[in-house]
C-alpha cells in the first residue's frame, strides 16, 4: 500500500533522469533496462523528512482535513452563510465570516460534548463529556476488535450488528430473569452475552467452512434476522410482561457493571462503568491472541494465504470457524456492555448502529488491536460530541458520519493527504526494474 | 489447447471415472420441502376448508375468475409433487447426473403454493396473486439495478461494496433534481450521474491510490449516508417545497402486452424506469458475453496481466467499468424516490445495496443469475409481507425473516462454493 503509481509517475521521469546522470557508467543500460532505485538522498535521510512523512503526522493531517471538509459542509448548510452568500460578490467577507462562525461553533460544541466542557460549574461536570465518550467507545472498541480479528483471517464479518443483538438478548434475559448472588450474576450475564454472540457468529463460520457459503452474504442476512428476532422477543410475555412498550424489565442490580468512578470517591452522575475496563482487557487479549498465540498465527496465516496455510497443514475451515466465534464473542461482550452497563434493559435499539460503526473503527485501526482501541475512542468521542453539537448548534449528527468516513478514506490514502499538504513521499521506491518506455499512466483520475 | 487435453487422455479409457460426484444436496432439500409441507402445513388445515386465489386486477381483456381450491386436497397433491421430484432427483444423483434447472422452479413453486394454500385456508380473504407479484417486482427493482452494477464492476476486478451508497445517492439526486426542475424525468438523468460520481470516487481511491476496495466501499456508504442525511436535515427540510416535493414518474401502459392476464398488469403497466431495467438486463448480458467490451472486461477481471500483454489498458477499463456500474446503481436508486413517487427520506435505501451484493454473488456474477436471485429475494420478501397481512398463524416477524433465511439456505445449499473473478480486489500495477 506504500507504493503508489501516482506518486511514482510524477517522480519517475525526473528522478530517473537524475539517476541516469549520476550513474554515468551503465548509462546505456540505464536508459534501456530501467531506472533502478530512485532514492533521493538529498532529503531521504533527514529527520524533518521522516517527521513529515511519518504515519502519525499523516493520521493527524487526515483528521484535520476531514474536519475541514466537514466544516465546509456545515458552512454550506448554515442559513446565515447562505443568506450572506447571496451578496457574495458585493461583500465576500460576510460569507466567509458566517461560514467560519458556523463551523467554529459546531466544532466547539463537538469538543465540549466529547472531551471537556469548560462551561460546566463543577469539575465533575467538566469531565463528564470525556466519560460519555468512553461509554460510547465501549461497544465500538469491543465489536471493532471482533471485526478486526475477522479481517486478519481474511473474513469480512459484517454481522457484528446481529451478533450484538443476539448477545444482548441472552445477556438481558440472564440479567433480569435469573436470581444469583452479586458477582456471579454479572459474570453469568456477561458470559451469556458472549456465548450468544459467539454462537450467532458461528453460523456463518460453519456455513463457510462446510459449504463455502460466502460470509458477507450470510452475516448480512443474519443481521436482518436478528432485528426481527429482537422485535419478536420483545413481544413475548417473558420479555415484556406488562405489554408496555418495547422495553424488557430492568436488569437486576447484581448483574449490572459497577460504576467505574464510585460515588464514594467523588459524587458523580457518570454512566461510565467497568465495561470500559473489559474493553481494555479485551484489547490486550486480542493483541496476545493475534501476536503471541498459535491460534493467532494460524488466523493470520489463513488471512495472508489460505492455500499456503492449507499446505502447511492448517485446517482452514477450523480456523474460519474459530475466528468467527471469537469475533462473535467480542461482539457479545459489546452487547454486555450495552445491556448490563449503559442501557440496563433490552430495547429494540440496544445495538444502535454500533455493529456497522465498528466496521469503520476496525478499518481505521487497520485491524490492529491498539489501533482499533484508539479508533474506537475517537469515534466514541465524535458520537458523544455529536449529540451536544446537534442540540446546541442544530448541526445534524449525520455530519459525524461524514467526518468519520472522510478520516478513514484519507488515512487509507496517504499520498492524497501528502499531495494536499505538499509533503514529501516517505520511502524510496521499491527497487523494481521499471520498463524503460515511459508508459502513459493508465489512470483516468 | 493440446497441453490441456493430455492429462485427460486416460479418461477416454475409463469414462465412468470422468463423471464427477454429484452432491445429494438437491434431493435432500426437495425432500425437506415435502416433509415441511407434510408435517407442518397439512395438520394446520381442516378437512373442509378451502383457499381462494385471485388472479385479476380488473383491467385486462378478460379477467380470470377467482379460483377456489379445497385446501387439504391441494396440499396433498403438492406434497406428492415435491416427494416425486425428490425421488427423481435422488435417482439422478445415483446416476451422477444433475437435476434439470426447471425442477428447482417446480419444487419452489409447489412449496410456495403449498404455503399460500395453507395461509389462505378457511379464510374469507383471497390470496391476491397480482398484487403479490407486482409487489415482488417493486421490491426487486433496486436489487436488480444494484446487482447488475456489482456484476459490471466485479467482472472487471473491482469489488463494489458501495452499491448501497450509489443507490442512496441516486435516490437523493433524483428526488432533489426532479423536485427542483419539476419533472420526475429529470431525476432519471440526475440519478445515474450521482451514482457514477460515487463510482468514480471508488475507482479513484481503488485504482489511483490502491486502497483496499472493501474499505473504500464501506466508507463511501457511510459517507453518502452521512452526506444525504445531513443535507436532508438541513437544506431539504428548510425548503421542502423547492427541494423535496414528490415527483412520481407517470405509469406508461404498453397497449397489448398489458392486457395479458396476471402478468400483463405486473410487467407492462409500469414507469419508464422498469422498462429501462428490462433493456439494461438484456443488453448487459449480451454485451458481457458477446461483445469486445465484455471480453475485455472479463479478461481484466480474470487475468489482468494477460489482458495487459495483449494491449488492453487494465486500469482504464476498470475505472470506466466502475463508473458505469455506479451509474447503473444510481439509476436504480431513482426507484426509491421518483420511481415509487416518494419524497427523499433519510437512509431510505435501508441496506438494499448489501442484499443486491448478495444477489450478485448468488447469481454467480452473471446478469441473468443476479436478476433471478434479486427476483427470488423480492418475491420472498413480498410473500412475507402479504402473508403477515393475511394473517397465517405464524408470527409476522418469522414471516418477515423469510427472505433472509431463504437467501442463507440458497447460499449454503444451492450455490455453495462460488468462484469470483480471479483478480477481484487486487490492484493492478504494471511490473
Automatic annotation (TrEMBL), chain A:
Transmembrane segments: 56-77, 134-151, 158-178, 184-203, 215-234, 272-290, 319-340, 346-365, 372-393, 399-421
Cell membrane recorded as keyword: yes
PANTHER family xref list: ABC TRANSPORTER, PERMEASE PROTEIN, GUANOSINE ABC TRANSPORTER PERMEASE PROTEIN NUPP
Xref: Pfam families: BPD_transp_2
Membrane-related topology note: Multi-pass membrane protein
Ranges in a coiled coil: none
Cell compartment(s), UniProt: Cell membrane
Protein name: ABC transporter permease
Top-level taxonomic group: Bacteria
InterPro entries named in the record: ABC_transp_permease (IPR001851)
Residue ranges, compositional bias (Low complexity): 1-29
Chain positions covered by the region annotation Disordered: 1-42
A GO MF term: transmembrane transporter activity
GO cellular component labels: plasma membrane
Keywords: Cell membrane, Membrane, Transmembrane, Transmembrane helix
This protein's record includes keyword Transmembrane: yes
Automatic annotation (TrEMBL), chain B:
Principal subcellular localization: membrane
Mode of membrane association: Multi-pass membrane protein
Transmembrane intervals: 28-47, 67-90, 102-121, 127-151, 158-178, 184-207, 214-236, 272-289, 323-344, 350-377, 398-418
A single Gene Ontology CC term: plasma membrane
Keywords from the named record: Cell membrane, Membrane, Transmembrane, Transmembrane helix
Domain of life the protein comes from: Bacteria
Annotated compartments: Cell membrane
One Gene Ontology MF term: transmembrane transporter activity
Pfam families, per database record: BPD_transp_2
UniProt-listed InterPro entries: ABC_transp_permease
Entry keyword Membrane: yes
Protein name, per record: ABC transporter permease
Organism: Ornithinimicrobium tianjinense
Amino acid at each position: 500500500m506504500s507504493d503508489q503509481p501516482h506518486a511514482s509517475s510524477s517522480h519517475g521521469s525526473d528522478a530517473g533522469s537524475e539517476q541516469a546522470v549520476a550513474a554515468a557508467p551503465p548509462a546505456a543500460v540505464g536508459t534501456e533496462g530501467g531506472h533502478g532505485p530512485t532514492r533521493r538522498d538529498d532529503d531521504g535521510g533527514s529527520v524533518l523528512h521522516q517527521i513529515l512523512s511519518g504515519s502519525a503526522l499523516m493520521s493527524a493531517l487526515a483528521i484535520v482535513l476531514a474536519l475541514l471538509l466537514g466544516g465546509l459542509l456545515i458552512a454550506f448548510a448554515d442559513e446565515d452563510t447562505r443568506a450572506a452568500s447571496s451578496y457574495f460578490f458585493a461583500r465576500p467577507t460576510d460569507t466567509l465570516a458566517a461560514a467560519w462562525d458556523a463551523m467554529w461553533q459546531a466544532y466547539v460544541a463537538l469538543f465540549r460534548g466529547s472531551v471537556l466542557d469548560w462551561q460546566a460549574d463543577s469539575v465533575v461536570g467538566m469531565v463528564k463529556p470525556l466519560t460519555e465518550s468512553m461509554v460510547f467507545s465501549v461497544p465500538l472498541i469491543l465489536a471493532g476488535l471482533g471485526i478486526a480479528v475477522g479481517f486478519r483471517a481474511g473474513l469480512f464479518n459484517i454481522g457484528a450488528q446481529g451478533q450484538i443483538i443476539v448477545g444482548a438478548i441472552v445477556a438481558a434475559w440472564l440479567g433480569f430473569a435469573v436470581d444469583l448472588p452479586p458477582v456471579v450474576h454479572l459474570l453469568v450475564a456477561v458470559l451469556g452475552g458472549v456465548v450468544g454472540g459467539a454462537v450467532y457468529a458461528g453460523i456463518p463460520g460453519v456455513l463457510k467452512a462446510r459449504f463455502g457459503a460466502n460470509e458477507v452474504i450470510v452475516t448480512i442476512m443474519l443481521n436482518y434476522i436478528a432485528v426481527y428476532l429482537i422485535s419478536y422477543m420483545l413481544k413475548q410475555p417473558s420479555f415484556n410482561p406488562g405489554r408496555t412498550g418495547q422495553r424488557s424489565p430492568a436488569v437486576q442490580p447484581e448483574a449490572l457493571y459497577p460504576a467505574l468512578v464510585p460515588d464514594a470517591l467523588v459524587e458523580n452522575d457518570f454512566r461510565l462503568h467497568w465495561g470500559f475496563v473489559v474493553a481494555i482487557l479485551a484489547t490486550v487479549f486480542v493483541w496476545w491472541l493475534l501476536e503471541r498465540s498459535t491460534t493467532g498465527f494460524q488466523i493470520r496465516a489463513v488471512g495472508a494465504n489460505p492455500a499456503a496455510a492449507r499446505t502447511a497443514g492448517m485446517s482452514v475451515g477450523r480456523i474460519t470457524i474459530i475466528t468467527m466465534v471469537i469475533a462473535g464473542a467480542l461482539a457479545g461482550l459489546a452487547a454486555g456492555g450495552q445491556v448490563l452497563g449503559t442501557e440496563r434493559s433490552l430495547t429494540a435499539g440496544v445495538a444502535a448502529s454500533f455493529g456497522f460503526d465498528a466496521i469503520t473503527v476496525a478499518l481505521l485501526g487497520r485491524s490492529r488491536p491498539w489501533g482499533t482501541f484508539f479508533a474506537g475512542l475517537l469515534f466514541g468521542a465524535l458520537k458523544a460530541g455529536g449529540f451536544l453539537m446537534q442540540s446546541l448548534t442544530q448541526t445534524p449528527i449525520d455530519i459525524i458520519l461524514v467526518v468519520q468516513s472522510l478520516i478513514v478514506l484519507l488515512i487509507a490514502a496517504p499520498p492524497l493527504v501528502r499531495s494536499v499538504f505538499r509533503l514529501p513521499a516517505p520511502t524510496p521506491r521499491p527497487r523494481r526494474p521499471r520498463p524503460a518506455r515511459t508508459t502513459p499512466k493508465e489512470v483516468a483520475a | 489447447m493440446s497441453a490441456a487435453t493430455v492429462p485427460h487422455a486416460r479418461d477416454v479409457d475409463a469414462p465412468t471415472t470422468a463423471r464427477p460426484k454429484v452432491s445429494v444436496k438437491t434431493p435432500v432439500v426437495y425432500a425437506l420441502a415435502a416433509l415441511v409441507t407434510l408435517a407442518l402445513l397439512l395438520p394446520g388445515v381442516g378437512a373442509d376448508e378451502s383457499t381462494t386465489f385471485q388472479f385479476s386486477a380488473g383491467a385486462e381483456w378478460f379477467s380470470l375468475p377467482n379460483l377456489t381450491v379445497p385446501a387439504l386436497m391441494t396440499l396433498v397433491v403438492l406434497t406428492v409433487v415435491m416427494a416425486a421430484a425428490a425421488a427423481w432427483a435422488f435417482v439422478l444423483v445415483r446416476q451422477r447426473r444433475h437435476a434439470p434447472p426447471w425442477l428447482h422452479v417446480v419444487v419452489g413453486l409447489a412449496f410456495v403454493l403449498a404455503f399460500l394454500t395453507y395461509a389462505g385456508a378457511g379464510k374469507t380473504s383471497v390470496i391476491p396473486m397480482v398484487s403479490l407479484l407486482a409487489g415482488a417486482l417493486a421490491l426487486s427493482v433496486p436489487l436488480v439495478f444494484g446487482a447488475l452494477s456489482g456484476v459490471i464492476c466485479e467482472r472487471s476486478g473491482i469489488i463494489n461494496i458501495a452499491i448501497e451508497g450509489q443507490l442512496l445517492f441516486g435516490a437523493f439526486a433524483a428526488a432533489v433534481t426532479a423536485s427542483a426542475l419539476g419533472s420526475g424525468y429529470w431525476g432519471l438523468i440526475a440519478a445515474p450521474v450521482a451514482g457514477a460520481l460515487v463510482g468514480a470516487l471508488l475507482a479513484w481511491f481503488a485504482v489511483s491510490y490502491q486502497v483496499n476496495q472493501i474499505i473504500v466501499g464501506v466508507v463511501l456508504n457511510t459517507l453518502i449516508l452521512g452526506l444525504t442525511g445531513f443535507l436532508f436535515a438541513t437544506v431539504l427540510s428548510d425548503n421542502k417545497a423547492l427541494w423535496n416535493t414528490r415527483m412520481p414518474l407517470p405509469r406508461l401502459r404498453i397497449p397489448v402486452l398489458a392486457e395479458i392476464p396476471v402478468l400483463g398488469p405486473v410487467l407492462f403497466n409500469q414507469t419508464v424506469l422498469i422498462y429501462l431495467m428490462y433493456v439494461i438486463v438484456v443488453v448487459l448480458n449480451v454485451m458481457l458475453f458477446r461483445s469486445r467490451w465484455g471480453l475485455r472486461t472479463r479478461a481484466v477481471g480474470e487475468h489482468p496481466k494477460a489482458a495487459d500483454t495483449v494491449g488492453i489498458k487494465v486500469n482504464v477499463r476498470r475505472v470506466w467499468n466502475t463508473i458505469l456500474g455506479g451509474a447503473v446503481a444510481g439509476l436504480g436508486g431513482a426507484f426509491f424516490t421518483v420511481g415509487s413517487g416518494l419524497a427523499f427520506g433519510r437512509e431510505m435505501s435501508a441496506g438494499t445495496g448489501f442484499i443486491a451484493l448478495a444477489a450478485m454473488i448468488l447469481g454467480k456474477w452473471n446478469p441473468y443469475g443476479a436478476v433471478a436471485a434479486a427476483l427470488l429475494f423480492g418475491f420472498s420478501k413480498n410473500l412475507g409481507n402479504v402473508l403477515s397481512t393475511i394473517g397465517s398463524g405464524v408470527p409476522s416477524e418469522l414471516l418477515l425473516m423469510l427472505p433472509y433465511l431463504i437467501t442463507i439456505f440458497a447460499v449454503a445449499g444451492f450455490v455453495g462454493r462460488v468462484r469470483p473473478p480471479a483478480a477481484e480486489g487486487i490492484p493492478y500495477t504494471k511490473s
